[in-house]
Every structure is written in C-alpha cells, then in structure tokens.
Design a protein that fits this description.
By secondary structure, this protein is an alpha+beta fold. The protein is built from 17 helices and 10 strands. The chain has helices at about 65-80, 100-105, 120-130, 130-135, 145-160, 160-165, 170-185, 195-215, 230-250, 260-290, 300-310, 315-345, 345-360, 370-375, 375-390, 420-425, 465-485, and strands at about 80-85, 95, 395-400, 405, 410, 415-420, 485-490, 495-500, 500-505, 510-515. A hairpin with an 8-residue loop joins strand 1 and strand 2 (about 95).
C-alpha cells in the first residue's frame, strides 16, 4: 500500500498570528531596513558545481519529483526565507514561506512584473522558432513591454466573468459527453480503465477546443485512434511538462549542445505548435473568409480576440496556442485530484451530491449560471483540494530592482518563489490543515485564513489568464459526474508527486457507481 506523506507542522506557528501584517513598501529606504543578502540562510554551494549538483541523480539529494517534500524540509531547516544560490546558468532562487511577505511583494509589484523565466521556452519562442512567433510570443515565458502589450489586448475577453458565462452550455456539452464516455469504458466492476488519466486529458483538450476555437475534436468518438493528432498532442504536452524541471533545475548542458532531453523537449513543442496551429488556422481562415468580426454569445475566444484587432490575426493565434500548452495538463490534474479526494472523503462527497441533486433535480436540465451559483459546496470542494494539493506548488516573481524581502536586501534579478503548497498546509495559516474541510471556504465559516496563503491561480497582473474558464470547466464536469456516479477508489492511499504538475501518483481506477 502506498501511504500519503504525513503533513509537516512547523513548530511555534499558530493561527493566532495570522493578521498581524502591516503593509509597508518593499523598496529600500536605508541600511537599517535590511540584512545583507549574503547572510540569508540556505544550502551551501560547492565549488564549480554550485547547488545544481543537488538535483543530479545518484550524487544529488534533491529529487525533482519530490519538490513538495524538499520545500517542507528547507522551511523546517532554514526558516521563512531560504536562498538557493550559485545555480549554473540561471539566477538565484529565494524560497519564501511567509504570507505577509508574499502579500507585500504582490501589493508593490510594478506595471510589468516578471515571473521566474523559463529559459528553455524563452529560447524556443524567441530564438529557435522566432520565424513563427515573431514579436507576438504570447504570455508564457515572455516579459516586459511585449508581455504587457499582449496581455493588455487579450485580458478583457479572458478575465471578464460575464464572458466566461457565455460558454457554460458549450462546456456542459463536453462534460455530458465525458460522462457518457465513462459509462462506455467502465468494466463489469464499474471501474474505469488504467489509462483513465488519458481520458481526463481528452476531456480537457475537447473543452479547450470548444471554448477557444468552437471546434469539436472528436476525442470521445468510438473511432478515436491512438495515433491521431489529438492523442499525439496530449502525448507531446505531457512530454513538454515532464522535461521542464530537468532543463530548468539541473545543469543546463542544453545551452552548450543538443542533449537527449533537449531534443525530446523541442520535438514535443514542435508537435504542439504544428497540431494546434492546424486547428487554429482552420477556425481562423473561416472567420477571416466570412469577415466574422462581430461577436455574440456564441463566439469563440478566437473570434473575440480577432475582433479586437482584425488586422493582426497572429494575436488570436498565439493566445490560442498558449491556452493549449498550459490548459490541458493543469486542469486535468485538478480534476483527477478532486475526484480522488472526494473518493477518500465519502462524507464530503455525500454532502456535495445532495447539493447537486437539489440544484439539478431534473438530471437532464440545462446547467446555467444561476444554478452554478447555487453550488457553493462544489466550489468549496474545489478550493479545498487546490489548497491541500495545488497543481502548481508555487509561483513567484523575478525582482526587477533591489527589494527587501523577509528583512533581506534581495538583488535585482533574483527569483523569489512563493511556497504556496507548504504554507497552505501549515497550522500557521489554516486550522487542521491536514483535514479535507471544504466547509472552511463557505460564507460564515469560523475557519479563518490569510488571503495570500492559498493562491492556486496566482495573483495580480500575472494571475492565470485562463482561471475563469478552468473554474467553469471543473465546476461543470464535477456536477455532471457526481450527478451520475458515486465515486470510489479502492486501491489504498496514493502518494502525490510532481510530474511536474502536482497530482496523485498511480492508476486512477475509480469505481463509478451509477445510482
């Protein structure tokens, strides 16, 4: 039996200390405001190898697939601010475990904040495939003026709550198709097959295609082939994510020569770009030929963005590509994790199903915005899962000027990583953090928490562009699944691991019991 890692409680930290934050400017005032960066605690580097050696197999003591455990151990050993310096080929990293300090960084960020860069993806977009991306490289691994101009143009259709609600019917159709697919692939024990995670990927891909392009990819068709474009796209996205931490954390030999990992990574990105471009261009050509620049409630996101600047279709094309790159694995991992947690907490699942049956008393009724608004416990279950098991363990900022963080003067260029997984599972910020308690997120709950202690979609100017659609997809598909099935998992406890998306590690052989 695989057992879940016991959650670490940091001694001496209590919920009573939550709201003692006084926001102050994080910029430097005088020498008395900070301690020297060189004095920040953290693991000592070795000559020549720096700290990269710690991520190497055999000789290293940092396992990339166990970043969650590493984060907790660093916090316990060094405290709220930890420096991992002397990283060959990349800036220093500062791990930050204090929600008050995280809030300060967010509140004081500039007009064009920098996220920690991904040199490998940056090189792909701006050097290797510059002929394709040009000056419009999207929002992923892009910073500065180019990022700001792109984000400013696309954020209105992406982040407006009203816009997201237009797609409830479309997203619900895909969720119903997924439920029907589950009914087909269950065995006589009512268990889904070993590769159920791939079925979840297909649901996520189909949902994105419907929203972004108004295209049906046929992921749930009976004649779906394992060598189809859509399956190749799913495989390529998995390969892309698997190799990101290897390229970013280990010694970057790929900058000197084409390593096997680099070749797989570039090959995967080329497949993603080629396949998604084919579908994007199909929708784009149709819109341009029809001059469909006026949008209504049925318009795809591609059409909405195209209508903002009909003379520049590349804007809509690159946004759609970014959605496919980051939207499939993340939403899939979230759904897998939520289903697993509900299966392991049957009392919470029972309460949630009662809410869903009450709101959707007629199982064939259309899911609407007003009905989703009534499903407050459903939203709480999603939030609680993403608190305990965020699909991305942390996010951060690259300092664009010398800044005081945690009492230390952090130089320009250092990457400050907010350790959300660690702090959102600590008694410092949450009562009973190791308990699955969706009730803590309901209005009027006595469970209080720091507003910056759990940020699964980030915060501020670089908050996830697709969060409203991800939320909508998860709420809709969970409502449909739990309306049709009671979910069980009868194969012991699963550990969580980093793929690098954080999710249960093992076969997701859920038992889907029809009422």
């Amino acid at each position: 039996m695989i057992v879940l890692t016991k959650r670490l409680r940091v001694p001496g930290l209590s919920v009573d200390k939550l709201f003692k934050s006084t926001l102050v400017t994080a910029t430097l005032q005088n020498d008395a405001d900070f301690k020297n960066y060189e004095d920040m605690p953290g693991p000592n580097p070795l000559p020549l190898l720096g700290n990269n050696w710690r991520f190497l197999p055999i000789i290293g003591n940092y396992n990339i697939s166990e970043i969650d455990k590493l984060s907790l151990s660093l916090w316990k050993k060094y405290g709220d601010v930890v420096k991992i310096g002397s990283l060959l080929g990349r800036p220093d990293m500062v791990f930050l475990y204090d929600a008050d300090e995280i809030e300060k960084v967010f509140r004081n960020e500039e007009l064009m904040p920098h996220r920690p860069s991904m040199p490998s993806l940056n090189y792909y977009k701006h050097v290797l495939r510059k002929d394709f991306f040009g000056d419009l490289a999207g929002v992923i691994a892009v910073h500065g003026e180019k990022w700001y101009q792109f984000r400013s143009k696309v954020q209105q259709p992406m982040l407006q709550p009203r816009t997201a609600k237009y797609y409830i019917g479309t997203i619900d159709e895909t969720a119903i198709s997924f439920v029907n697919r589950i009914k087909k692939i269950k065995n006589h024990k009512q268990e889904v097959p070993d590769d159920f995670l791939n079925e979840i990927h297909k649901w996520s891909l189909e949902s994105i295609a419907r929203v972004a392009l108004d295209q049906k990819l046929g992921c749930f068709d009976d004649d779906f082939k394992i060598n189809s474009d859509t399956q190749n796209l799913i495989n390529a996205i998995n390969t892309f994510f698997e190799n990101v931490p290897v390229l970013e954390l280990k010694i970057p030999f790929w900058k000197l020569f084409n390593t096997p990992t680099w070749k797989k990574y570039i090959g995967a990105l080329d497949v993603i770009t080629e396949i998604t471009s084919k579908h994007i261009n199909k929708s784009l050509d149709q819109l341009l030929s029809e001059k469909s620049f006026v949008t209504d409630h049925q318009s795809s996101l591609l059409q909405r963005v195209l209508s903002l600047d009909p003379s520049n279709p590349k804007l809509a094309q690159i946004l759609s590509l970014d959605m496919f790159i980051v939207g499939i694995d993340t939403t899939s991992a979230a759904l897998a994790s939520i289903l697993y947690q509900l299966s392991k907490n049957p009392d919470k699942q029972k309460k949630l199903r009662e809410e869903i049956f009450c709101v959707l008393s007629d199982g064939n009724s259309q899911l609407t915005s007003s009905k989703l608004e009534q499903l407050q416990y459903l939203k709480a279950c999603i939030k609680e899962t993403l608190r305990m098991y965020p699909v991305v363990l942390g996010n951060g900022r690259c300092m664009t000027k010398d800044t005081v963080v945690g009492g230390y003067k952090v130089p320009k260029g250092v990457q400050v990583i907010f350790q959300h997984y660690a702090i959102s599972n600590s008694t410092k910020y949450f009562n009973q953090p190791d308990q699955f308690l969706p009730e803590r997120w309901l209005k009027g709950s006595p469970h209080k928490h720091h507003p910056f202690a759990s940020l699964p979609f980030g915060y501020g100017k670089r908050m996830c562009l697709g969060r409203r659609f991800a939320d909508l997809e998860l709420q809709t598909v969970l409502a449909r699944i739990l309306l049709n099935f009671q979910v069980e998992y009868n194969y012991g406890l699963l550990n969580y691991t980093v793929h690098p998306i954080y999710m249960p590690n093992g076969l997701l052989k859920f038992k889907m019991i029809e009422d």
